[in-house]
Amino acid sequence: MTEAQQPLFDRVDGVAFFERVVDAFYEGVMTDPVLAPLYEVEDLDGARHRLTLFLVQYWGGPSTYNDERGHPRLRMRHSPYRISTLERDRWLVHMNAAVDAEQHAGRLEAADHAAMRAYFVTAADHMINSGGLAMRGDGTSSHLEP
Ligand code: HEM
């Protein structure tokens, strides 16, 4: 296998890298007036665990997420939460800060840092399920209104 084919997971310090990213992310989320109310405070460890396993799997590590949770179906799993561009933007602020910190600490290569940031933009856009759609004359939107 050439270096270009190696997954990102193999270039960072494994699961520990994703645990640090997710810890930093949730630290930000829990101080965020827009996002914090969406999360169950009693199950933050569970939320950290699920996001960590998902990211580990996505970036080429063990597929424990699938073993525990099945196919990610992330858009469906986010349907209970109202996610507009506001929530997306706040989510990205905290995730970007988390991955930026890893790069500044010398634990994430520039190209991998750029790949993660680009992925999160696309993934977060995909989770939007409310607002931002053209309104019809009768005030309803074309689809996806909660
Ligand atoms: C766009 C704004 C987003 C908001 C407001 C949001 C919010 C949430 C909330 C409230 C949960 C429930 C926490 C839990 O108990 O697990 C959750 C779960 C989760 N989110 Fe997000 N999320 C967003 C974007 C994303 C993105 C972009 C990803 C992936 C790159 C992601 C991955 C996950 C995963 C893997 C879970 C756990 C799913 C499960 O197995 O149940 N989220 N999210």
Question: Could you describe the 3D structure shown?
Answer:
It is a single chain. The protein has 146 residues and is mostly helical. It has one domain: Globin-like (Orthogonal Bundle), CATH 1.10.490. Helices cover 53% and strands 0% of the residues. Helix 1 packs across helix 5 (85-104). The longest helix has 20 residues, at 85-104. The radius of gyration is 17 Å and the shape is globular. The termini are far apart. Bound molecules: protoporphyrin IX containing FE. Protoporphyrin IX containing FE is lined by residues 35, 38-39, 43, 46-47, 50-51, 54, 69, 74, 77-78, 81, 83, 87-88, 91, 120, 123-124, 127. Residues 35, 38-39, 43, 46-47, 50-51, 54, 69, 74, 77-78, 81, 83, 87-88, 91, 120, 123-124, 127 line the site of protoporphyrin IX containing FE (HEM).
